[in-house]
Every structure is written in C-alpha cells, then in structure tokens.
Write a structure and sequence with these properties.
The structure holds two protein chains of two kinds. By secondary structure, chain A is an alpha/beta fold. Helix content of chain A is about 35%, strand content about 25%. Among the domains of chain A are: about 150 residues, Rossmann fold (3-Layer(aba) Sandwich); about 60 residues, no CATH class. Chain B has twelve helices and no strands. Classes of the chains: A alpha/beta, B mainly alpha.
C-alpha cells in the first residue's frame, strides 16, 4: 500500500568527479531531485554511465555529494540510525567469497548487534526466503550467479529494512534467475517494503515498479507512473491475413489509414470512429481480421523518446535491454 | 621523554581533529560489537585463504633447519639459533605485516565487499579499527607459533647438546620471549602505518611505501644523527620531521642483546612499547579521519 509519506528525499543532488587531469571534473549527477513514497517501488532507469549507481552510493553514504542533500526517514543520510532501517543489494553481489551463505548472513546480522540466537533464526528465515536452505554451506565463490544474487539479497534483508535499495538486481542472470529475482522483489513488495531499484533492464522495471525516473547524463529527464510516461495510445493496429496486393493498396489509400505493412494495417487513434469503415475496406480487400488492438508505448519506447528529446544528436537506446 | 611529550601533543591534536571531523558523530553504531565482528571475519578470511599458513610453514622449516648444523661450541650454537630464530621471527613478521595489512582495506575497496559492510550501521572508524585488530590477531597468532617453535628448539637443543667445561648451551628463554614480544610491537606499529597508507592509496603503492617506512624506521637513530649534524636549517627541519614521523622501529629490536647474552633492559622495552602504543593510536586516528573522507 503506497502512502504519501516520503521516505527518501533527494534534493538538488549533484556529484562532480574531479582529478588532476580533469580539474573541471565530470558531472556524474546533475541537480537530481526525486522522492520515494512509503510502500512504493521506484525505479531509476538509464543507460550505463547515466549516474544511477553514483546516486545510490550517495544515498547510502558511500560517497559524498558535491551539492544537494539526501534525507532518509527525515534524517540526514550520514546518520547511522538511518542505516538500521535500510537494506542494500550491491550490483554484482560483492560479498566475501571464501565464506558460506550462512556464515555471511551471520556476519552481516552481527553488524546490527543481534544476539547469537536471533542471528541463527534470521539466517534460517532468510535462507528459506531466497531459496538457499539446501545450499547454505556452499562457499560463496562456488555459488552460481543466481545463488550469489539471492544471497546478496538476503544480506540486504538481515535487518528487515523498511527501505530496500537494489542496484541492478538481475544483472548477469539467466532468464530463470531473472524470473526468480523478480518473484522475490514481488514478494518484498507484497510485504510492504519501499523499494528503490536501479536497472537498465526495462522489462523487469515495467513488471514490478510503481513509478519510474529516467536518468540520462546525470539528470532526471522524465518521471512518473508507467501510464503517465507512456501517455495515451497513438495508433490502432489491425492484423489481417490474405489481403491481395491490389486490395492492400486500396486499404492504404483509405484516409484514416496511416500505412499497411504486410498483414498489418495501422490507423491513427484519433480516427477510431472510422474503425468499422477501415475494417470493411480490409474485408473487401480479401483480408481476414485476426486482431485489432491499441498498443500502449512500452517503457523502452518511453525511454528512447525521453532520451532523444533530451539529446537528439545521440542514439540513446543502445545501452538498455 | 621528548618523544613522549611529542606523542601526547600529537594525540591531543588528532583527537581534536577527529572530533571536528565527526569521527564519532553521528550517533553510535553497535560500537565494539561491529569492530569485533569485522576483526573476526578478517582473521577467518586470512585463515581460509591459506597463504598465511604457507608462510608459517616456511618459517618453521627455517627454524627447525637451524638444529641440524653443528658449531664449534654449545654457547656459539645457542647464539646462532637465537640470532637466526629471532631474525626469522622479526623479518617474516614484518613481511607478513606488510602483506596482510597492505591488503586489508584496498582489497575491500577493489573487490567492493566494503559496500555491503559500510551500508550497515558501521562507522568507518569501526571498520578501520576492526581491520587493524584483525591483522593484529593474525600476526599475533603467527608470531606466537614461531616463538613457541623457537623456544621448543632451544629447549630440545639444551637437552641434547652436551655442555663443555668452557662453554655451555644457554637457551636464554626469558630474553628470547621478550625479544619476540618486542618484535611483535614493531610489527603492530608498522601495521598501523600500513593501514594509514592504505586508506589513501592503492595496494601496490601501500606495499612500496611500507617497505620504505620499515627501512627508515629501522634507521631512526641515523636520521637523528643526520638532523643533529645538519648544516642548514631546512635540512635540519627536514630530518627532524622525518625522525618524528617515521615509527621508531629500532627501539623494538633487542635481537643483538639477546643473542649475545648481554644485559637486556626491560625498562627500555616497556618505554618503547608505551611510545609504540601512542604511535598506533595517533596513526589509527589519522587513518580513520582519512578513510572517513574517502569516496568508496
């Protein structure tokens, strides 16, 4: 259940990386402002190098902003008490690789000051949740990528966090692993966790997120629910087989039709009152109508459109999947 | 005395710096518990990687090999075993300190395991302290094993080597243990410096800098002499600064006195240990301040 309470507030956040060779620096994050509400799943999407991970690292206090501020649960991110209520899944599951799953979870639970008994209970609960009970004594370095990612998620959950920050949770996973991870994120969402997810896998984002922020070159170029971002359908698509070439030409000449490509007839959404007329034309051309639908733009379409608007000189869709 | 006053002054300055740097603020994490957990996992990780065990086995072989040589007389034989044994403990202790401590923090940053730790309620000060404490435990365990083997070798040799009228085998055990403990203090001080360097540089740079500090720290009296004999103010200032900044490692070296059956000043050892502890506190505070500001 999403409430209006903002649990994570980022205001005017900028991060410039400077070095001896580049004193002017590289702007990784540029005047970023966003808020994540309690109970929602918010995803920051963007191509590699768009500033997503830098933003997460600032949110976690791992690096420091050049300007701007981050508040979690109303407190400054530097406040250690905040981290009692936050869980973090780092990209590529960086955990101590010589230890087994249960040893790792015991260690991370210990950092929250839990007693030995509580740690044991937690380890059992979390290993069950992520489906790693059977492999609890397998060293991390011998785990598959999917198992590592699930263990990394488990360590992010040792403190039963209210806010969960996931950096590329399905990166490098095969389709089965990706499905398992998406199911786990669903489960956490059902349990009422607020989730900030960073990803460039748009399909998974589309599946689990309530709101999306699109980052490009360090800036937030679009933000909203998928429906808000996608907007209304712009076309009606009719799929019909069996049209003769001459018939297809006649259909294409219809004033409501935008174009015909093989078995697919596209007409403008604004001409929907003339749908029956177009369907008649298709039938007269010998076509058998199989499907009529109004496709809504996918997140991929929205993403590419937002980035092209922001930087029309570059083809921005190449780094997302 | 001057060195002690300098250490106390520096400690006060660093404490002020640490407070103004919000080293303890904001609110406490889980204090000693987190530090101890980090120290324990550091030790466990070193045990699992088995590199340390390999070095220990090598040193033990060196210590045991000393028993097979025969010498002119029992006293000379004891002298050679003590000298060789203490040298092996010191040199391998220092080398292990460099290769254990130099990797502690840079490796966490390079493998990014630090992300999952520092995103928990762990202060960076606790992290640095935990890693250092872990290194101290590892080095203490190794140097204890080496010392026990050296003592065992001396006891066995004392039992089997026949005394002559003009020469007896003297195991000099108390002083041998004392010298080994002082070597451990040297290793502890050097490890603190290595941790400090590793908070601001890469592993490779840390290793190189550690060897330089070891070399300079072992020649501290020469640096003092150079400062005293300097002809220009700038040269004097340069050498004096060096003298105070590098760890006084040679103060912990009692190998010569012990292996030559000379009078050993325990008071000098206690004084050196006191100054060493001060150096460790100051250096770790500086390391924590640096790591607190580091982008990980």
């Amino acid at each position: 259940m999403v409430s209006d309470e903002i649990v994570l507030q980022i205001e005017g956040l900028s991060k410039v990386y400077r070095s001896l060779f580049a004193p002017a620096g590289t702007k990784a994050v540029d005047s970023l402002t966003l808020g994540v509400r309690r109970g929602e799943t918010y995803s920051i999407v963007g191509p590699n190098g768009s500033g997503k991970t830098t933003t997460l690292k600032i949110v976690l206090g791992l690096i420091f902003p050049t300007s701007g501020k981050v508040n979690i649960f109303g407190s400054d991110v530097a406040d250690l008490a905040v981290r009692e209520r936050v869980g973090f899944l780092p990209e590529d599951a960086y955990l101590y690789d010589v230890f087994t799953g249960e040893e790792l979870l015991d260690f991370y639970a210990g950092l929250f000051g839990y007693s030995r008994r509580r740690r044991k209970e937690l380890v059992d609960e979390l290993l069950s949740l992520v489906g790693m009970q059977a492999n609890r004594r397998v060293p991390f370095q011998e785990c598959s990528k999917g198992m590592r990612q699930r263990l990394a998620l488990a360590q992010a959950l040792v403190n039963d966090p209210e806010l969960l920050i996931l950096d590329e949770p399905t990166s490098g996973l095969d389709p089965a692993g990706r499905h398992q991870m998406t199911e786990l994120i669903y489960e956490l969402k059902r349990r009422g966790k607020t989730i900030l997810l960073c990803s460039h896998f748009l399909a998974e984002v589309e599946e689990v997120c309530d709101r999306v922020g699109i980052m490009y070159r360090g800036r937030l170029v679009a933000e909203g629910t998928l429906t808000e971002l996608a907007g209304d359908p712009t076309e009606i698509v009719i799929t019909a087989s069996g049209m003769s070439p001459e018939g297809a030409s006649r259909v294409a000449a219809h004033s409501a039709v935008l174009g015909v490509e093989g078995d697919v007839v596209r007409m403008g959404h604004e001409s929907s009152d003339r749908l029956w007329s177009v369907l008649d034309a298709v039938r007269e051309a010998g076509g058998r109508v199989a499907e009529v639908h109004r496709p809504r733009p996918t997140l991929q379409d929205v993403f590419v459109r937002a980035i092209r608007q922001d930087a029309p000189e570059r083809d921005a869709g190449e780094e997302v999947h | 005395m001057g060195q002690l006053a300098f250490g106390i002054g520096l400690l006060v300055a660093i404490v002020v710096l640490a407070i103004t740097h919000r080293l303890w603020a904001p609110a406490m994490g889980h204090g000693g518990a987190s530090t101890w957990r980090i120290a324990k996992i550091t030790v466990a990780e070193a045990r699992r990687r088995r590199v340390v065990q390999a070095v220990v086995v090598l040193v033990l072989l060196i210590l045991l090999s000393m028993t097979v040589f025969s010498y002119l007389n029992p006293r000379e034989q004891a002298r050679m075993i003590i000298s060789g044994g203490l040298s092996a403990i010191t040199v391998f202790g220092i080398l292990l300190a460099i290769f254990v401590a130099a990797f502690l923090i840079p490796q966490e940053l390079e493998t990014r395991t630090v992300y999952a730790v520092l995103s928990k309620p762990v202060r960076r000060f606790e992290f640095v302290l935990g890693k250092y404490l872990g290194a101290l435990i590892i080095l203490a365990a190794i140097m204890t094993i080496m010392t026990v083997v050296l003592v065992a070798v001396l006891l066995v040799m004392d039992h089997f080597v026949p005394d002559l009228t003009y020469s007896t085998f003297e195991p000099n055990l108390a002083n041998v243990v004392f010298a080994a403990v002082m070597s451990y203090f040297a290793v502890a001080v050097l490890s603190a410096y290595i941790v400090l360097i590793s908070t601001v540089s890469s592993t490779a740079m840390t290793v190189i800098a550690s060897f330089i500090i070891w070399a300079i720290g072992s020649l501290q009296s020469q640096i003092h002499d150079l400062a005293a004999g300097a002809e220009t103010v700038s040269t004097k200032w340069f050498f004096t600064m060096f003298y105070w900044l590098v760890p006084p490692l040679e103060n912990f070296d009692f190998r010569h006195e012990v292996s030559n059956f000379m009078q050993v000043s325990y008071k000098a050892g206690i004084d050196a240990a006191g100054v060493g502890i001060l150096y460790i506190i100051v250096v770790l505070l500086v390391a924590s301040v640096f790591f607190n500001d580091r982008q990980v």
